[in-house]
Design a protein that fits this description.
By secondary structure, the protein is α/β, with parallel strands linked by helices. The chain folds into two domains: 192 residues, Rossmann fold (3-Layer(aba) Sandwich), CATH 3.40.50; 156 residues, Rossmann fold (3-Layer(aba) Sandwich). It is built from 13 helices and 13 strands. Strand 4, helix 3 and strand 5 form a beta-alpha-beta unit. It is globular, with a radius of gyration of 21 Å.
């Protein structure tokens, strides 16, 4: 099938946490017989911070972030069998959503792909006139990158015909074990952009622990932390390109995952960082996340910290051998159960079943 997807960016992970998710899913989906075009705006300096060039498995169209630019790329939706609007493009989101409903061919599938479902659901809950909420009954399907039954039920309750989670996973061609690098040596590393609904959790889980063990080295990666007051033993790295994630993950004694408020409350939404770290064989330490045991076994394949006190204790007590064993166990688990090849197979069957149903309806 020909797939047209309108998203934030495939080429750049700069202020764009969904990039590796898009890449992993679409790279694995293309060999299953799909011709994919990804449309992304030239916005937020992402094109000057590209992590990759246009790949062979997906055509990428970069358009001007103007009304004219948006209108031009929306006309191309008519050529696709499946038209997808992803959440969080950042510019002209409502125009794009209305546009795929208007410009898609009459027999095409129209999808909304939510890469931040808990936040989206909270936004539309109190606004019956929200563009997405009005569009839901006219869409064939909502995809999410997590959330489990609570998110599925919520979307159906707001009028979606159906909702299917396609979880984050590992692309082993991108994230895998590499030799450690001295510049990234640390007792604990956290990588994540500075966001309002995450910052206080970073303070509670990461910065508090750093203050409690001033003789240990902590690395803080991600955009936006430059002016954040931190203990002296916290080294700020700024934006870390995808190409350096493997070395960053394997060079630390442990890697910390901290969920955003909305994802922590919903659960079943492990961030891409979880699978990236596990795929590199790193020892992962995560804040409590409902459903984490469905992905990694606590105590064996991942460590779970209830608060900053638990993080501090882990930093003090975790040995290099324990960290190695946990990291290796996590690596084996994700390679067997949580690759994008598996996720893409699920999505492929969902799309083919939907299309078969559409054609049956038209023939009746």
């Amino acid at each position: 099938m020909k797939i047209a997807m309108y998203g934030s960016s495939l080429l750049s992970a700069y202020w764009n946490g969904a990039a590796t998710y898009y890449r992993g899913i679409l790279r694995a989906l293309a060999p299953l017989g799909h011709d994919i075009t990804f449309f992304e705006p030239d916005a937020f300096d992402r094109q000057s911070h590209r992590d990759i060039e246009p790949p062979p498995w997906c055509r990428v169209v970069v358009y001007k972030a103007t009304e004219t630019g948006v209108r031009e790329v929306l006309t191309q939706a008519a050529r696709a069998d499946v038209v997808i609007k992803a959440s969080g493009v950042g510019v002209f989101d409502d125009t794009l959503l209305d546009g795929i409903l208007t410009h898609a061919a009459p027999d095409a599938l129209r999808l909304f792909w939510d890469v931040d479902a808990p936040a989206t659901l909270a936004e539309i809950a109190g606004n019956p006139d929200h563009t997405l909420r009005r569009a839901l009954p006219h869409l064939d399907l909502v995809l999410t990158y997590g959330g489990g039954d609570p998110v599925v039920s919520a979307y159906r309750g707001f009028g979606a015909r159906d909702c299917v989670p396609i979880y984050n996973a590992l692309d082993p061609t991108t994230h895998h074990p590499v030799p450690p690098e001295h510049r990234f040596a640390a007792d604990l590393t956290f990588l994540g952009n500075r966001l309002p609904d995450r910052e206080h959790r970073v303070e509670a889980f990461f910065l508090r622990a750093a203050a409690e063990v001033p003789d240990r080295r902590f690395l803080l990666g991600g955009s936006g932390w430059g002016d954040k007051p931190c203990p002296a033993n916290v080294v700020k790295l700024g934006h870390v390109p995808t190409s350096a994630h493997n070395a960053l993950n394997v060079s630390a004694r442990a890697v910390l995952n901290i969920s955003r408020d909305s994802m922590a409350s919903i659960g079943f939404s492990p961030a891409t960082r979880v699978f990236e770290a596990a795929g590199a064989g790193a020892c992962l330490l995560t804040d409590p996340l409902e459903g984490i045991a469905s992905f990694l076994t606590p105590g064996k394949e991942v460590l779970v910290a209830r608060d900053g006190i638990d993080v501090t204790e882990a930093v003090r007590s975790l040995t290099a051998e324990q960290a190695r064993q946990i990291g290796q166990a996590a690596l084996q688990r994700v390679l067997i159960e949580h690759t994008y090849d598996r996720r893409a197979a699920v999505l492929h069957h969902v799309l083919t079943d939907l299309m078969a149903g559409r054609r049956t309806e038209q023939a009746a």
